[in-house]
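ARCHIVE RECORD
Type: protein–small molecule complex
Small molecule: copper (II) ion
Source of inputs: curated submission
Record status: active
Notes field left blank by submitter.
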Amino acid sequence: MWKVTTGVLLAALILGPSGARAKTDDVSRTIEVHVKRFAFSPSEVVVKKGETVDIRLVSEDVTHSLALPDFNINKEISKGHPEDVVITPQATGDFQGQCGRFCGSGHGTMKFTIHVTE
Ligand SMILES: [Cu+2]
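STRUCTURE (tokenized, with ligand):
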């Protein structure tokens, strides 16, 4: 009975078919991504399909965000307040992200790619 209830709860935490979900303790690794005008560093990460990773966003200057439309995520980060984006991709492919918060002249060039491999 307890297991059934827990399973339902975990299922409810999954936000969409792409695998965005609330933070859980099954994260296999944390990838720290620094964000500043006008780039994400690293700007590309590789994740295995079905792997739960925590993308820890750290702003080094102003408020930015990481928008990942395929994961229904737009997470804002301000300096001094790192944020965690936990995803479990359920499909292989390249998923594009970008800064979703206007931060200056180079805002439109702030791209981020998640490569999901088998
Ligand atoms: Cu920005």
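CURATOR ANNOTATION: The CA atoms of residues 4 and 32 lie 34 Å apart.
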